[in-house]
Amino acid sequence: MNCQPTIKTMVYNCxxxxxxxxxxxxxxxxxxxxxxxxxQELPWLGDHCPxxxxxxxxxxxxxxxxxxxxxxxxxxxxxxxxAFPIDTLISRFKHNSQWPLxxxxxxxxxHVLEHRYSxxxxxxxxxxxxxxxxRRLRQRGFNQAAMLARWLARQLNLPCxxxxxxxxxxxxxxxxxxxxxxRRNLRQAFSLLPGVDVEGLHLAVVDxxxxxxxTAQAIAHVLRKAGAxxxxxxxxxxxxxxxxx
Length: 245
Ligand SMILES: [Zn+2]
Ligand SMILES: [Zn+2]
Prior knowledge:
Layout: H1 4-15, H2 36-41, H3 64-68, E1 75-81, H4 86-95, H5 99-118, E2 126-129, H6 134-140, H7 144-156, E3 165-167, H8 179-187, E4 190-192, E5 202-210, H9 214-225, E6 230-238
Parallel strand pairs: 1-6, 2-5, 5-6
Antiparallel strand pairs: 3-4
Bound molecules: zinc ion (2 copies).
């Protein structure tokens, strides 16, 4: 029977002692299920663009993309570069419903954010998960961004605003479109739910991975147009520029 380890993990999680590391099965000796060795080996985000968190060779300078076209969001906060083993862990959380992994990654991103708040990053008025189109939600059964946002909200003591935005349609065949058409296509995919007022609010959009930033950009555009004062993006991982990894 292979149900034993799961039961063991559940018991350990409940009692919060002697947790095993979710990555190597060794005793974690930490208040979360990850041992120090595995934690240190994670691809923590190093020097990056202060605006979009793109990994860069030198810290503190805007990347070429942000210099050429300043994004609608103010700042991206990511815990990791999208690289091994974080890419695998995110995929297992997302496609194999391995929620303890998602919970662990959210907790570690929460620690990064608490540290950033203590260094002066303004706390948002609320967290806002990137919505999934209804069809995709039916296929997958859950929205991984919403789960991350709920866990983060609890840890950071912030409201989780899940009923602000909807993804009115999926956006397939994006690759076939030019950059401008792609931006327009995405922007039209998101809309505020009726009766929602974001005037003057500082919101942080939560997603698992930030790749081109086009989705974040589209949501920031919709929120800013509706009067939001500031939009930040919180994500687990940021992909390096293609060919840079
Ligand atoms: Zn470990
Ligand atoms: Zn940038």
